[in-house]
Structure to design on (907 residues):
């Protein structure tokens, strides 16, 4: 092949070995997204084909040499109705199909394990409940639903895993969630897809999907020694939260045990379900979320706790539901120095 | 290719340009800078938007050069960010929004309705001055060191995290907005109040209908952009906190406000182009546009629905799932009027007597590329599909198919179509056909690979990318080179034709519009006497009768 210039040759080889039309299908959602994509490509090809056929056919049949005199035609209500209704019907199918898929991608199953993601210029931090921290990487087991609870500590980012066909905006000041179930082991791209400043294109990483056994091994090997809930417990104590949220009947603040997932009556009479976002907002903006029966005396912790710290505390409060030893801690207002066992993933994530 | 033509030029040996026209009515720089004549203002706009188009195009060239290799090696990441931001800001606000309405619309809309000028000639001139001020601010932002917000000015990045000339660029866009509000206002009042006797609404050319619809969007949508930019500037300058979550603000609010303008803005850009296509297809198939009322009302439908689809830019941004549902449904509805238009244009060809002059070639290009652009918009309007496709090169390809494949093709179709009217001279036909072909090929080579890149997951606005995406990016850059030639060619031969082009005569295309019944280039007051309209738009029998009558009178 010496008669081809080496540059061109390399290009050809590259083309033939790397040309792909689809990213790997590595999640439960991916085949469904691709199916909708094929449907859409199909109606596009048919639609474009019809238009192209009409234009080419008429251009040939009615070009001036063949048809020197045009026949004036007003229009046709029947035809107008036809090309209104058929596209509309196809678009409605697309709409319903797309909506079903959307609701599936953005409504996590109740048994999903939760991992927290914090985005910042220009890195992704992943926080596993067991206390594993990762930067620009995310290790997940296959065949198990994984929910990501994500927040940005500065600007908008967007968490995208093309091989899983999932993506969600990571927003400052607000939790957003997405879930997936990896189906194939491998290493996949992780991109930030929302423009976020100078090194936007470096805010990338890899998602490693592993067999459950490998994942167990990885979890054990990369633990930082204390779980998120334990970190949260320490923060809870050091910030003095326990002095009011002691769980005693005469305490200044509501009892936090069993709070997560419950419905609380607010001072203005409305009812709120306690979830991650509510807990975070209440810590930062307590006066906005006044629980009925308590005086508005809680100070704001805006600017005092990092997003990771907030995640730790939220995780801690979540775990109060199932961890009696923490309940004891609260009652004695003392911090236990022995760490509770890292919560097994999935625990405390149950949606009500 | 067919050699038949409808072009009917006066005998070149004896033909002369009219002794008096809007071009030589007055002389001197001030006669241009202080003119109230809509035709002269259109020419001022034409020169200025061409200037900005080539600056924006140079930016596009730099982007494609950088993306030739996976590493960020031609320029630093920051520079790349500034280049694509400037490309977007210039192309959207200083080229696409004013392109057809401020040049072609300004020139022919008053003549089409049989008026001597727009309703407010001084506001029309003010609109051009505002455009120039906007351009100066934007150029200042560029020269002083650039701005790297992207054309979307996303908060809190633009308000708290960037150290570039956000306010300067923001003021530029703010002023450009008012320039477009004034144009829209002028068109609305002109269409309502200044139609010639007998020019009823349903005798208006479809070009006027589409400009009317676009004008409504300009007047009602653009103030929201102005408000949004003021908030961004205030937030950045004095920290009012509307978009800052740590002060109780909401960054998503910015997205809502911005897209409330910027989605209708897409229709501000494309509707006037659709008007051009209606005129061109009718003229070169010698037939009235099939389903006139359907095409006219589809423009209005696009303008109305266009206001209620903005949140489809935010499906993945944590809006409520149910509001996403509503916006997706409305997005599907807005796609229908565009489909109606395409099919009506195709049906217009049926039993026509078709010739293939340059404007018609561009119009065919428009139909193909806009169909692809529109259908891929349905991909993005479909909720589940949008999750994977949004913020990737798929969306880049989609809106370039609509904006460049659609709008720019329509603009070039229009410029070629009305060039004889504007200048009194023909452009060189063979060369322009070549340019149309080069543009079409270059365009597809540039942007089609980007659909594939997008589905593979390549994010937009990346200075560097994983190496497996290189092949498709090289194809795209190669295409951009071809496309660049396609755009330079008209620039050159159009300038050449100003002096050496054949004399066009008043109606080289045998078209029916009122603008073709007056001399080329027109008189400053357009009509010698106010026309009285007694026929519908695209009435070729009326034209044949009139021509015959003239011949008889003269003979």
């Amino acid at each position: 092949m010496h008669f081809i210039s080496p540059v061109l040759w390399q290009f050809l080889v590259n083309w033939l070995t790397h040309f792909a039309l689809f990213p790997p299908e590595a999640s439960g959602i991916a085949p469904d997204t691709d199916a909708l994509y094929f449907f859409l490509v199909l109606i596009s090809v048919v639609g474009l084909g019809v238009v192209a056929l009409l234009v080419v056919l008429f251009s040939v049949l009615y070009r001036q040499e063949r048809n020197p005199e045009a026949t004036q035609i007003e229009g046709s209500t029947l035809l107008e109705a036809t090309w209104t209704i058929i596209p509309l019907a196809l678009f409605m199918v697309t709409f319903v199909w797309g909506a079903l898929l959307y609701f599936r991608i953005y409504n996590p199953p109740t048994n999903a394990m939760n991992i927290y993601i914090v985005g910042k210029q220009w890195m992704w931090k992943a926080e596993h409940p067991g206390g594993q921290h990762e930067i620009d990487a995310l290790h997940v087991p296959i065949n198990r639903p994984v929910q990501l609870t994500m927040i940005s500590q500065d600007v908008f980012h967007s968490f995208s895993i093309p091989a899983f066909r999932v993506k969600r905006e990571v927003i400052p000041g607000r939790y957003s969630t997405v879930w997936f179930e990896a189906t194939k082991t491998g290493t996949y791209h992780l991109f930030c897809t929302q423009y976020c400043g100078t090194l936007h294109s470096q805010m990338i990483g890899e998602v490693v999907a592993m067999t459950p056994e490998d994942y167990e091994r990885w979890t054990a090997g990369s633990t930082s020694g204390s779980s998120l809930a334990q970190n949260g417990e320490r923060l809870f104590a050091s910030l003095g939260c326990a002095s009011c949220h002691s769980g005693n009947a005469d305490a200044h603040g509501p009892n936090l045990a069993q709070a997560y997932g419950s419905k609380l009556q607010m001072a203005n009479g409305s009812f709120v379900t306690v979830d991650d976002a509510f807990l975070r907002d209440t810590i930062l903006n307590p006066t906005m979320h006044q629980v009925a029966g308590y005086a508005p005396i809680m100070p704001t912790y805006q600017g005092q706790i990092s997003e990771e710290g907030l995640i730790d505390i939220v995780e801690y409060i979540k775990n109060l539901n199932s961890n009696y030893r923490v309940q004891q801690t609260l009652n004695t207002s003392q911090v236990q120095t022995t760490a509770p066992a890292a919560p097994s993933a999935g625990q405390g994530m149950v949606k009500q | 290719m067919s050699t038949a033509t409808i072009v009917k030029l006066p005998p070149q040996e004896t033909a002369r340009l009219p002794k008096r026209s809007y071009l030589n009515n007055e002389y001197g720089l001030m006669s241009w800078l202080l003119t109230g004549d809509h035709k002269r203002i259109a020419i001022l706009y034409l020169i200025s938007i061409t200037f900005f188009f080539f600056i924006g195009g140079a930016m596009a060239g730099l982007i494609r050069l950088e993306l030739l290799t996976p590493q960020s090696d031609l320029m630093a990441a920051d520079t790349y960010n500034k280049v694509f931001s400037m490309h977007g800001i210039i192309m959207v606000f200083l080229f696409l929004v004013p392109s057809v309405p401020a040049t072609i619309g300004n020139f022919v809309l008053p003549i089409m309705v049989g008026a001597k000028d727009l309703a407010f000639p001084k506001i029309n001139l003010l609109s051009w001055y505002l455009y120039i001020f906007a351009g100066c601010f934007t150029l200042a932002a560029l020269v002083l060191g650039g701005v790297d917000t992207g054309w979307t000015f996303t908060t809190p990045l633009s308000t708290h995290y960037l150290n570039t000339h956000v306010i300067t660029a923001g003021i530029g866009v703010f002023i450009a907005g008012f320039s477009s509000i004034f144009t829209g206002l002028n068109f609305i009042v002109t269409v309502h109040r200044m139609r010639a006797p007998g020019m009823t609404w349903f005798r208006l050319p479809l070009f006027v209908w589409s400009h009317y619809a676009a004008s409504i969007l300009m007047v009602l949508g653009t103030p929201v952009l102005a408000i949004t930019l003021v908030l961004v500037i205030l937030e950045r300058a004095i920290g009012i906190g509307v978009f800052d979550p740590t002060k109780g603000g909401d960054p998503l609010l910015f997205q809502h406000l911005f897209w409330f303008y910027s989605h209708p803005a897409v229709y501000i850009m494309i509707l006037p182009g659709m008007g051009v296509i209606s005129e061109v297809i009718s003229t070169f198939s010698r037939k009235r546009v099939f389903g006139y009322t359907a095409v006219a009302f589809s423009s209005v439908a696009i303008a109305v629905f266009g206001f209620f689809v903005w949140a489809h830019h935010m499906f993945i941004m944590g809006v409520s799932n149910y509001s996403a549902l509503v916006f997706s449904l409305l997005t599907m509805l807005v796609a229908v009027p565009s489909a109606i238009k395409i099919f009506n244009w195709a049906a217009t060809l049926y039993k026509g007597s078709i010739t293939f002059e340059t404007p018609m070639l561009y119009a065919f290009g428009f139909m193909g590329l806009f169909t692809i652009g529109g259908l891929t918009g349905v991909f993005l309007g479909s909720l589940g599909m949008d999750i994977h496709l949004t913020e990737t090169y798929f969306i880049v390809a989609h809106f370039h198919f609509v904006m460049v494949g659609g709008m720019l093709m329509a603009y070039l179709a229009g410029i070629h179509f009305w060039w004889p009217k504007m200048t009194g001279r023909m452009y060189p036909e063979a060369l322009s056909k070549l340019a149309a072909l080069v543009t079409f090929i270059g365009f597809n080579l540039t942007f089609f690979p980007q659909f594939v890149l997008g589905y593979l997951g390549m994010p937009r606005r990346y200075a560097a990318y994983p190496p497996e995406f290189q092949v498709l990016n090289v194809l795209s850059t190669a295409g951009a080179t071809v496309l660049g030639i396609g755009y330079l060619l008209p620039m050159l031969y159009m300038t050449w034709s100003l002096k050496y082009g054949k004399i066009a005569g008043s109606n080289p295309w045998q078209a029916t519009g009122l603008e073709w019944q007056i001399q080329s280039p027109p008189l400053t007051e357009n009509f010698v006497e106010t026309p009285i309209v007694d026929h519908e738009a695209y009435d070729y029998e009326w034209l044949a009768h009139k021509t015959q009558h003239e011949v008889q009178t003269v003979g």
Q: What stands out?
A: Chain A has two domains: 22-59+77-224, 228-332. Chain A touches chain B through 94 residues (CB under 8 Å). The CA atoms of residues 230 and 338 of chain A lie 10 Å apart. Confidence is low (pLDDT under 50) at residues 324-352 of chain A.
